[in-house]
Amino acid sequence: KKMLPLVWGPFYGRFDNLREVQRLAVPVVLGGSNALIISSTAGGKTEAVFAPLTQRLIMEGWQGTSIIYISPTRALASDIRGRLESMLTPLGIKAALRSGDIKELDRTNPQDVLVTTPESLDSMVSRMPALLKDVRAIVLDELHMVDGSYRGDQLRILLRRIEALSNNPVSIYGASATVSDPMGLALRYMSSPIIVSSPGGRDIDYQIVPSLEKAARAFREKELKKCLVFCNTPEEAETLANGELRQWFPPSVLKVHHGKLQVPK
User: Which residues pair with 115 in a beta bridge?
Assistant: First the structure.
């Protein structure tokens, strides 16, 4: 709390305690070292990186678009932009989303934080390179999802181009679920990385139900706010979102996300 005096309330005020990955990551990010942050899904990685980055932004007086948050999908980018806005707005820090669907970045008065996808950032590097001259930190969300693919190659090239365009040293922070070779993953995207890893996850209060209909009913009865439905294939996810799930949820709240799992050798 003493290390994050300016941002503690918006980022951590609603929690009783910090998670292990947050306690480990905060001093690393405050120090400006490149790092790969590894923790389970919903393990608090976003706050672990963004709270200390925001502290640095305020303390060091960063100007222009100084932080870029790169998400592998539009759905995740939209979700993280909403989460960040709730934490950054009380601090007077503005965030913008730029994806294939939404382009909020103000060219004349650019926001402090840009949330985007690799493809949209690639377009921006080509068409608006001047807006990247103030970049000081880049966060690579769910890095394991793009590594080992052409999108991972694209991301590495983008990082080098942004480092060349910026007038400042650029710190790089990756966030990932557990991977078999953390250092190998980190070294493909940043130099001299520090690995911050926390194997622990949340305790799960679960209920087994026989059908999707029963699951939807339980969701409503418990008045839950968010639900993840996992499918075996991208096609199945699309079919479910455009079919049966619409019987229980309005289309406006359904978001399809395509990911991949690393299969142990």
Answer: 69, 97
